[in-house]
Hints:
Blueprint: H1 3-30, H2 35-38, H3 52-64, H4 85-114, H5 127-146, H6 156-162, H7 168-176, H8 178-188, H9 192-206
Helix pairs in contact: 1-3, 1-4, 1-5, 4-5, 5-9
Amino acid sequence: MAVASTVILVAVLVVSVVVHEVAHGLVADRLGDSTARMAGRLTLNPLKHNYPFGTLALPFLGALAGVPFGYAKPVPVRPSRLRSPRRDLVLVAFAGPLSNLVLGIAGAVVARGLVPDAPWSFDDLSIAAQFAYGTALVNLLLAVFNALPVPPLDGSRLVEYFLPARWLRTWATVHRYGFVVVLALVVSGSLGFVFDPVLDALEGFVS
Length: 207
């Protein structure tokens, strides 16, 4: 991938993961927990959400490999401050993927008017088309990935909400090993089963 294309994808990814975290914080704030706001995290300034590896190094490495990926520092949420902690944690969690879904759809709509008919490659697109298509690509993948029902991903909150109380202790144990499961999914290529249909649908829509 060309240097310019890599920079564009990284820029889109950084903005997208920041929007994701801000969405968590905004919804938590509306539901009674002002922790993120008091910590100065309800801002699109990437420096306030930066993890040196996840927000800078990983996006560059991923873009070079053709797999845009990264994450930002999670916004702080205190369940005890939410009006209805069990329910509100689900709403807070899904605010992130929802924000990415909205950005992804918007990017796809714009890209449809800018991307030429197939065949084409990302490097050959105009800068505007790269930004639009990159926005759609990155955000749709982030939305799908974070909605997976695997801790610590946002989708796991929905599972937790519907679990009977007697299973919550077991679920807490699963949480301890959730990152290992996520890493295994990424390394093994198993996420292709989820991502490939999204990529095919996006390419078909814009072309």
